Every structure is written in C-alpha cells, then in structure tokens.
Please model this.
Amino acid sequence: MRNSFPLWKNLLILGVLLWAFIYALPNFFGEDPSVQLSPVRSAKVDDTVRQQVEELLQGQGLKPQKVELSDKRLLIRFADTDAQLKAADAIEKAMGTNYTVALNLAPATPGWLRAIGAQPMYLGLDLRGGVHFMMQVDMEAAIKQREERYAEDVRTLLRENKLRYRSVDRQNGTIRAQFDDTATLAQAQSVLGREFRGLLIDTDESQNVLLATLSEVEKREVQKFAVGQNITTLRNRVNELGVAEPVIQQQGTDRIVVQLPGVQDTARAKEILGATATLEFRLVDTEHSVPSSADSRVPLTAQLYRDRAGQPILLQRKIIVTGDQVVDAASGMDQQSGTPAVFVTLNSIGAKRMADTSAVNIGKPMAVVFIENKSETKEVNGKKVTTRKKVEEVINVATIRDRLTKRFQITGLDTADEARNLALLLRAGALAAPVDIVEERTVGPSLGKENIDQGVRSFVIGFAAIIVIMLVYYKVFGLIAAFTLIFNVALILAILSLLQATLTLPGIAGITLTIGMAVDANVLIYERIKEELRNGNSPQSAIYAGFERAFSTIFDSNITTLLAAVMLFGIGSGPVKGFAVTLTIGILTSMFTAVMCTRMMVNWVYGQRRAAKLWI
Amino acid sequence: MAETITRNYKIDFLGKRTIAVGLSVILSLAAIVSLFVRGLNFAIDFTGGTVVEATYDNPPDLNAIRLQLETAGFHGPTAQHFGTARTVLIRLPPEANADGGPAKDGTAKDPVAEDLGLAQNDLKSRVSAALNTDPAFKATITRVEFVGPQVGDDLTESSILALVLATIGILVYVAWRFEYRFSLGAILATLHDIVMIFGIFSFFQLDFDLSVLAAILAVMGYSLNDTIVVFDRIRENFRKYRRGEVIDIMNLSINETLSRTLMTSFLTFVTVLAMAIWGGEIIHNFAIALIIGIVVGTYSSIYVASALALRLGVSRADLLLPEKEGAVDTRP
Model:
C-alpha cells in the first residue's frame, strides 16, 4: 500500500503554510524611531504641513528616512533615536501650538506587506514600557446625578402643568413628591407617567405622596452613558497628551482601562487625564469695539477672549449657562437647511436661564467659551512645583435666532467634522461621573526591552532543545517534527498578527509552552507507529495506523487544555489574557500542523516506497 | 489470553497502587495542612497594594531601604532582591496607599481638588524621592504596580469561579467521552496535582500572583491530557482483549503509553525549565508552578488516575457500549 494525500490536500496545506509565513513576517522587521504629528482640534495635517515639516527638518540638517501622511497624522521616520529626539524638539518648538508631537516606534514593515494587510503583533505594555491605568466609574454618583436631574424636571413639569405640590425631594434613590389632595396626586401621576418613561411611579394615597424610582432600564442606560461619556472625555484628553497608539477601552460594566505606551511620567499623565474643563455660554458684547491694542481698556461689563484662530473677541461678563447644565450635545444635520448642526440639551435650570436671556436678545451673537483647568508640574531647582493654569478659549459664536429652550441647536457650522468636534467639546467638559484609579502599572522602557529579550531567549532555548531531543530520538521523523514545530510557530504568529492581538510576556510563555505541548501530538503518532512496527506491521500500514489511531487521542487531550484556556481567558486581565490567547491559538494550530503537516511530510518521505525501513 | 497480557508488560504499576495512593494522600494532606497553617503568599493582584521595582547603581542595603520608606510615611514596606543584587522589589500593603491612592470614602468629590491630589501624591514620584535620599545609592524606578483592593477582590472571585468551572467542564467532558468513573478518577488526579502546587507555593511562601493561577489552569489541562491518553488506551485495550483481568489490561495500557508519557513530559519540562532559567523574574513563579505541575501531573496520570478509576470499580462492560466506535477501529 501507499500513503499519499491527494494533490488538492497537499496544495491546501502548502497554501496555508505560505500564508502563515507571509503574515508572520512583519514581526521580524523591527521598528523605526519616529515622530508623530497629529492635529489638535480644528487644525489639519495635509501636504502643506508635510512640506513645512520637511523644510523645517532640512533647515536643522536632519534627514528623515520617510515622511508619511496617513489618516489625519504625519509620521516621520528616522534612522536613529538621536535624530528622532532632535526632530521632535524642533517640530514641537515650531508647530507645537496646533499639533501634538509624540515619539513613536513605528513598525518598519515593508510597503508590500502593508499593502496586503500584514502587520506585526501589538506589543503589550510589559514589553514596550508605558503606563496602564484602570479606572472605576463611580456609578452611584452617576445615578444620584440623574435622580437629582429628574427631581428637578419633575418640579418643572408640575409647575408647567399648574399642579400644586408641597415638596419634591430625593431620598435614598427615591424621588418623593408631596401633594395636598388625591386629585392632584392622580393628575400628577398621569402627567409624570406620560412624560418620564424612565421612572417607575408609585403612589401612596393615604398620605398623598408620589414615589418615583429609576427603572432598571434607565439605570442601565445611565451607567452605559456614564462609561461611554467618560471614555470619550478621556480619549479627548489622551489625544492631547500626544501618545502614539493609546488604548482606552471599557472593561466589565464600570471600569475603563487606559494604556499609554511609552509614557513614563505618571504624574503628568494623571494631570492630563484628571484635567477638568467646563463651558460657558455668554453673549457677545456688541456695544463696544474690540480693543485694538493691549493697553486699550476693556469695558467693565465685558471680558476679552480669543477664539481658536487667535482673534480677540469681547464677551459680556454675565454667564448665561455653564457646562454642568449641559445634559447632552449631539452633532447631526439641521433638517431645514441640511447643514451640519449641534443639538444641545440643557437641564431645567439652564433651560430657564437660556430662555429668559435669549428671548430678549434675538438676533444677537452668543459665544461658547471652553475653559480648561490644567495643572503642570515642572522641576524648579530640583523641586517639583505644580502650577495651575486656566486656559480659556471661544470655541463657537452663533447668532440667536429664536427663544431658546431646553433643547436648541447651533447651526452655521462649516463641516460635519466641525459639528462633531463642537459636540464633543460641549460634552467633554467634564467627566460624566467621577472616576477612581483602582489599578496602576508602570513599566520602564528598559524593563520592557529586557522582558522581550528574556522571553525570546527562553523561547529559543526551549525550542532548540526540543528539536535536538526529537532529532536524536526519532531521527528522520524527528526532523519532520522540527519542521512541523516551525510551521506551528509561524501559524501562531500569523494569526496573532492578523487578529492584532497584544503580545505580552506571559503570551510569549504561552507560545513556548504550546511548543512543548504541540510536540506531544508528534510523540503520540510516532510512538504509535513504533508500536505498530513492533507488532510486526509493514512500514506503510504502521504509518497509516499510527496517524489514524493517534488522532482521537490527540483530539481528546487537546480539548481539555482548550477548556482550561478558555476559562483563563474569562478571568484574565491584560498579560494573562495574552497567555490564554496564545495557548488557545497554539492548541488549535498544533492540531493542524501535527496531524496534517506531519502526515504530508511523512507521505513525501516514506509514502511511495514499498518496503523501506523507517528511520524512527 | 490473560497470560499473554500479563507477560506483555514490564512494570506492575497498579500492583503498587496502595503505596502510590497512600503517598499521594499523605502529600495532599501535608499540602492542605500547609495551606491552612502558612496560607498562600498572595501577590498584589489578589490583595491589592503596591509593588515597585527599582534598579540601583550599587547593591543597596535592604534594611536601609525599608527605613527610608518608613521615614517617608509608608507603612509596613518590605524589600527584597529581585533577580540581581542591584534590583530591588518593594511591596507596600494596601493601607499605605490611603493618602496616595484615590479617596475611597467618597467624600472628596470636588473634581479639581481630587484630580490635583492624585497628581501631587503620585506614588512613583513619592517612592522615587524616598529611595533617593542617600546619594551613595541612586535608584531608578523601572516598574510600579498599584492594584486597588476592590480589583483584587474581584479577581479572587473570578479566579475561584474559573477553577470551579474548569473542573466541572472537564468532569462533564471526560464523563461524556469515557465514563463517569474515569471522569472522577481524572478529576481527582488533576485536583491532586493542583493541591500539590498550592501546597508547595504555600510551604515555601512563593509569590502567588495571577500568572501562577494561569499556570495552574494550564496544568489542569495538561495533566488531564496525560491522563486521557492513558484512558484512551485502556478503552482501546478493553475492546481489543476480550478476556483478562481489568487490572492487567489497565497495567498493560499504562505500560504501552509509558514511553509517550515520559517523552512528552520530558519535552514540556525542557521548555518550561528554559522559561524558569532564562525567562526572567516576572514569569519565574509561573514557570515554577508549571514545573511542579508537569512532574506531579506525570506521576499522577501514571499512578493516581487509573488507580482511582480501578478503585471506583471500572469494568470492561462500561466501555464496550458504543459499538459504532469499535467498528472504526478496524485496521487498514
């Protein structure tokens, strides 16, 4: 008999292996030290900026390897970190106001690989260095805020409907409204029930009391909103830090993970993340002209601001509405004109003040001021000094067209992008709910490098040892097993790269361990073949039986490890999750390589011969 | 037939099962006693707290470091060498973060004050300042990890859940593929391995962190892997040899799979050993847990699992039911 695969099977296996090698390849090209330039708010990165940067670098005598313009950022690659640091300094000085400049290690993947979507794995913080924060969103506070807002809205609605109440207050998660008689109570119940779907309304007629609590759906909604809003705000702030490839994601129901690769200064990172910002809506002072020079006097009732282009603008001192009265802001299209617009929702206090002010100021311009409280820590004479800085900026001026109410829209924005940005800033004023840092991990860059080296070294040594043992023990079949293991590693790397999974130190350990376990399949098959030979079977039928019979064992034994790996994925956070991922992928790929690839090669070597002696 | 089988194998593993099981029971009890008496040395992943890794120019004095930290207002710091004499690992228990970490009582909710408080009391800067009070020993902080107590509690909870779920999952799978007595034997053998790891980590007070838990779950899968290979062969031999004592067939199966069991364990052992020696301090305990698991797991799949299945009264009839599977077994 002969052992051989049909042609299509061979081609399929070879195709998979070729694919694996190509997609594993990007991981071996290393990284270029580079500088990343990204725009702040409304600034843009385009070919003119690129030219500007190129000229600037030329002036400094710095030669970048490559300047790449890709979605909204400019990546300037250098041959060494020295040039990178000098260039970052120069660019920061020249263009720092409108752009954030960040140091980055950009993968040096060749263009043809990038063109087919082949990218290297993403290195975890334990391998590249950086800061990891886990923040807990204070959900109780978020729900309390929402309850307070509802209490307020209940009062307003009752007033609007001319329903007399004695008191409306909030206690232990319940909004309690006291009425004089049952008739009003019943009316209030129907009005509130109609208007506020998110409230569960109950009444106690003996005391003329209405009790409203947030429904579970509403509570979930509040939590989702709080986390989502906080993520948006944090992302906005992280962008300001100028970190290349930050990770900001939700973990569980109420936690947010922020990872800042390359950042070492945790104090500064916390300053930026913890920065508080607020908004003010003010009328533009149209009675006085903008002072032409610095020494001109600003009228007492007005205050001088600058807009984002740096132009001075005079605003009235009186604040109409502040940012904490903004409930929501969303960008969209104005239905009448079809132009981009931002829809703002105010709470009832804000709505009343806005209505009163706008009613008597129709046709006049109103401005939105963005105020950020930043703190900066600088080292002065060896001591750390923290200074607080207030940054105020007019982000929008619009003409009041009508009496504005609880919900109004700002139109006249140029692009949908601008509308989105404005909505973001209006929302991003403050965090929707307070956050606590519940976990913080900092890994220095040198430690990261060391971790990679140690991880790779232990992997290579373990791998080499296995190959030597297999060669000595199983001879030709050992050689085949060695190839199989190499294919297996290539497949694991390719899949991890394709999934853009994060490689961590335990992840590397997972790959190393997988190699030890993957070779088990080969051992099972080979031992079986040996046994069949001892039982007096011919080489060909021994090979056949070896593969056929070992398969169910291989399958059974791998399933259990897979089970454990999946459990691990469930509990794991960060690095350990990396271990679970590599272990899972490794088990799956090893089933393919050990069974299919080994058999294909064994077939090639021994499949065609009649009575060959097996070198096993 | 029975005679030929007995002559076929060399080592009478199950004949020594009383000794083996006895040894396992004693060691397991010792491990459990150690767990109760000494407990586990949980790392901050589970307890919350802070770990700081610092590298010095010259090998520093650990007591001096403790003193420096206490002077700076940290409570109960511990310091130990980490890998090299110049690298020091400092541990601060959770209470020490009371003024450096976030406010837990929920009173300080003024965002500005809180944010600035966070930044100014930045742990890394404070520890760095404390360590660098002696100019003769310059310290660079290479790693800081702070875990809040709540996070640790959550992790402990989900870890226990994962261990339980993995156990149940394996129990169900083996019961489905083989038979419930095999399943119990396999799971007891696996739990035996885990108890050993816990015991050794407890006895030597090795750091028990999340990666060690990961290793334990991996060992569960791995140790079972070995056991299943043996069981697979037992099932096959039950179908092959229609006669013969149950114990003989089991012994034969263990002998037949012995070279594979040893070879695989040896190979996995080699990779894990490489990890323990060259993988660096961070995954050292992870590798140690795996080494224990592989050694004990190999022993238990040879001696414990089958002995338990035998003790539970496995018989040939239990495995002969699925006739269809037997039909697949025909030779080419």
Summary: The radius of gyration of chain A is 33 Å. Chain A has four domains: 7-26+445-606, 30-108, 140-219, 275-441. Chain A touches chain B through 92 residues (CB under 8 Å).
